[in-house]
Design a protein that fits this description.
Layout lengths: L1 H26 L3 E7 L5 H15 L4 E7 L3 H9 L5 E5 L8 E16 L23 E5 L3 H13 L8 E5 L4 H7 L4 E6 L4 H9 L8 E2 L5 H7 L3 E6 L15 E13 L4 H18 L24 H7 L6 H30 L1 H23 L3 H24 L4 H31 L10
Parallel strand pairs: 1-2, 1-3, 5-6, 5-7
Antiparallel strand pairs: 3-10, 4-7, 4-8, 4-10, 9-10
Helix pairs in contact: 1-10, 2-8, 8-9, 11-12, 11-13, 12-13
């Protein structure tokens, strides 16, 4: 029984160890994550492509496969239909329920300004000094994304202006000059990082050299942020949009909205932790080529955040990342329990398979007890010798059953007692028979009587 149990335990441990090594080898092989980002040719795509190359050069655990999309809405949809594992999205666009934040890719601010040049490059004066005066005006939105138009309508509404009374025209980032020549645009709106080259070029194109346009503060920024948590009230510091001349002249209150890297909720916590760690470790190495990469920030890990953080990212950010033992201790305990269970099951199965041996051995022990009585009444030395040979066979069978686990130690001890009694009975009877033959005295009654 002990040998069988030990053999089962050893085999189980070996099988468990092989399975564990195989599982860990599979788990820690490089993981390739599909990341959706767009539109094609944008700065966002270039940054993500450079990140992907950097991960390969540094031989990191997580690798990236870039999936170019038409824009943030399409990238978000790729997460929802499981075509992508990660995506660069804008926080104020509709996101699928399984999208959780991993990092703030960049912070965008809303910049609204009144141009101070006409289509012919002549300086002009404007009476517009605040958003509430935009009714009946035309606003030029830089960029063809619908997100900027929706944001403008929200700002107008909260500023007390009916969006239906404001004419909105969208154009590409390279069409600002044409917009001034062909259309009357009273106010421009751009959404991007404070140091955005696109915003800076648009401001320069609508500004007479040596002067500063009129920047419009968003006075309702705090109210909008309270009603819509994906936005934040922000400040554009004086001179942040240009130092010569200083633009703006004073600090301007505005709104900010994040571009996020999000991950599918179903994505492994360990994989997202590894990706987050890699992202924040490598960003500084890329900032010489892509200065904006250094602005990648940690997301809000509060459970009440507008877009909750993925548990894997939160674990790295909050310092609660689990160690190897913490992560796999449950598997180890389950493995030990499984080994113990297999050993017990193996022992039971072995015992079950030996049930016929136990039945036969029980019958032989009964025969041994019968032979004790027979030995005490025997009249022949030859009969006693034959019974001893039979007892030897029973002993051999019993020892074999003990070795095979068919009988236990208690049964073997009881058998030894019976065997001793048998040998004593045989020896006494042989002594009596020998004495009887020498003395010729009548045979005494059997001890059994």
């Amino acid at each position: 029984m002990k040998r069988v149990s030990l053999a089962v335990i050893i085999v189980s441990v070996v099988v468990f160890a092989i399975a564990l090594v195989g599982y860990l080898s599979f788990s820690w092989r490089p993981a390739t994550l599909r990341i959706a980002v767009g539109p094609p040719g944008s700065q966002d795509v270039k940054v993500i492509q450079e990140l992907a190359q950097a991960f390969i050069r540094e031989r990191h655990y997580v690798r990236l496969k870039v999936l170019a999309t038409e824009g943030v809405s399409e990238s978000a949809a790729a997460i929802g239909n499981h075509q992508a594992d990660l995506a660069v999205v804008r926080a104020d666009r509709e996101l699928p329920g399984n999208a959780l934040s991993v990092a703030v890719f960049r912070k965008n601010v809303v910049v609204m300004w009144v141009p101070n040049v006409t289509a012919r490059g002549q300086k002009r004066e404007s009476s517009i000094t605040k958003i509430s005066e935009l009714a009946g005006r035309r606003v030029g939105v830089i960029g063809k994304t619908a997100a900027n138009v929706d944001l403008l309508k929200l700002v107008l509404t909260e500023s007390g202006v009916d969006p239906e009374k404001v004419s909105v025209v969208q154009f590409e980032t390279t069409e600002v000059g044409e917009a001034l020549r062909n259309q009357k645009v009273d106010v421009f709106l751009a959404v991007g990082p404070v140091d955005s080259r696109i915003t800076a070029d648009a401001i320069n194109a609508t500004t007479r050299a040596g002067s500063s346009p009129t920047f419009l503060p968003i006075g309702a920024a705090e109210i909008i942020a309270r009603k819509h948590p994906v936005y934040e009230s922000a400040e554009i510091a004086a001179g942040a949009l240009g130092a010569t001349p200083q633009r703006p002249d004073n600090d301007i209150t505005t709104l900010s909205v994040d571009h996020l890297i999000v991950a599918r909720k179903e994505l492994s916590e360990a994989t997202v932790t590894a990706f987050t760690k890699q992202l924040f470790a490598i960003r500084h190495a890329l900032q010489s080529e892509f200065p904006g990469v250094a602005d990648i920030q940690v997301p809000d890990t509060d459970k009440a955040a507008a877009i909750p953080a993925h548990p894997g990212a939160a674990a790295y950010i909050d310092g609660t990342e689990r160690t190897f033992l913490e992560r796999y201790s449950d598997f180890m305990w389950l493995g030990l329990m499984a080994v113990s269970g297999l050993a017990s099951a193996g022992a039971w199965f072995r015992s079950y398979m030996r049930r016929d041996d136990r039945v036969r051995n029980t019958a032989l022990r009964g025969r041994l007890l019968e032979m004790i009585a027979a030995a005490r009444d025997s009249e022949s030395i030859d009969d006693l010798n034959a019974m001893q040979r039979e007892a030897d066979g029973i002993l051999k069978d019993t020892l074999d059953c003990f070795e095979n686990g068919a009988v236990d130690e208690d049964t073997l001890s009881a058998f030894n007692i019976a065997l001793d009694q048998f040998h004593s009975a045989v020896q006494d009877r042989k002594t009596w028979i020998a004495g009887e033959r020498m003395s010729g005295a009548p045979r005494p009654q059997s001890r059994a009587s």
